Amino acid sequence: MGRIIAIANQKGGVGKTTTAVNLAAALAMAEKKTLLVDLDPQANTTRGMGVGRDDEGPGTYEWLSQGGESEGVIRGTEMSHLSLIPSGRHLAGLEVELVGRDGREYILRRRLEVLPHEDQFVIIDCPPSLGLLTLNALAAADSVLIPVQCEYLALEGIAEMMGTLDRVRQAVNPGLAIEGVLLTMYDDRTNLARQVVEEVRRVFGDGVFKTVIPRNVRLSEAPSFGQPIMMYDVRSKGSEAYLALAVEVLGNEQAQSAG
Length: 259
Ligand code: ATP
Ligand code: MG
What we know:
Layout: E1 3-7, H1 16-29, E2 34-38, H2 44-48, H3 60-64, E3 75-76, E4 82-85, H4 94-98, H5 107-113, E5 121-125, H6 132-140, E6 143-149, H7 154-171, E7 177-184, H8 191-204, H9 217-221, H10 229-232, H11 237-258
The structure holds adenosine-5'-triphosphate and magnesium ion.
Magnesium ion binds near residues 17, 40 and 44.
C-alpha cells in the first residue's frame, strides 16, 4: 500500500470532500494509481464521484463491519488510475456497533493492509467530527492534510486541530505526519482572506501548502455532475489549483522517500 493521506478537520464545510475528490483525481491524472475512500456517512465524496443513493453495492460500512469483506468494495471510475470505496447510509451505524470492540481504532488500518490492490496513494475523506471513523482514518494514515477555510478564526481552528492531532499521535499513531495545512475558498477580493493567508503562513510557515484553493463556482458545480473538477472543467481555476496541490504532494513524497 502506498502513501495514505487522511483529509481531516473537525470543523464542517471547510472543503474536506472537495479536496479529497479533486486531489485524488489530480494524482490519478499524474498517472499515480490512487484509491479514494469515503469514510463519511454523508457520502458526499461518493455522490461527487457519480455513485448514487440507489447504489446497492458494498461500501465502507460492509468493508469495516464485523466479518467485513473486501470483495466488490473497490469501484472503478471514469479515470483509469482512480478507484473508489464508496460510503452509504449504513456507515453512520458503525460507530455504535463497534463500541466495546477491542482494537476498534485500527479496523481501517487492518483492512487496508490486506487489500488486494496496489495503490500509490490512498486518500481518505473524513466526517466533520472526531469520532471513531475519523480516528480510524488517523490511525491508518501516514499523514493528515488539513483543509482550512480562509475566514475569521482560521488560526484558532488550526491550533485546535494541531492539539487534537498531538493527542491522536499519543493514543493511536505516533508516526502520523502533517502533510500540510491547505487554505481553501480563498476570495482575493476581500482583505480578510488576504490577512488570513498572511497570518496562517506567519504562524505555520512551511507547514502550509503554497497552493491556495480559490473560491471557484466550477468546484461547487462539479459534484452535481458526479465528476472531479478535472473531468468537469479542466481549465477552471479550481482545477488548476488542485493540480498544483498534487504536484506539491508528490514533492513531499519524494522528499520523504529520499530522506
Ligand atoms: P463536511 O464537513 O460537511 O464534510 P467539507 O469539509 O467536506 O464539509 P465540502 O463539502 O468540500 O466541505 O465544501 C463545503 C461546500 O463548499 C460545498 O458545497 C462545496 O461545493 C463548496 N466548496 C468547497 N470548496 C470550494 C471552493 N474552493 N470554491 C467554491 N465552493 C467550494
Ligand atoms: Mg465532507
